[in-house]
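Tokens help. Our protein:
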Amino acid sequence: MNLIVAVDQNWAIGKENDLLVSIPEDMKFFRETTTGNVVVMGRKTLESFPGGRPLKNRTNIVFTNNRSYQKDGAVIVHDLEELDEVLTQYDSDRVYVIGGASIYKMLLDHCSTAYVTKIAQAFEADTWFPNLDTHPDWVLDSEGEEKIHEDLTFHFCIYKNNKNR
């Protein structure tokens, strides 16, 4: 299983259930990486999408504690056991955890690769991702060239989980 996330220089990922910033090249990377694959997210992440609708051309798996929650176009799971059962249908290399913070935290140790867009700026935030630079199990595998969008500098990075290699 993989994860994909955009973080600021403090590993912040959001504020008030929204992204910190929208970078077209990052959005394109996310779309191209996840299209045709499986995305795993929390209910709040799903509801943050336009119209609260699942992402097109992907299998959307939504994690929620609400047992009565339903959403057309999404597979709903309520715990790790249910998620594991659903994921047996898919190649783990084609599964991407896409947020939010509690889902990232819960599934981080289950992931082998993290696709991280690192933005070289700090934003006001209320939600953070674990800092993989200081995490004992994760190592920076590659860092792309510096890119600039308006006044934002960013890099596409790939981290590997040494426990799941």
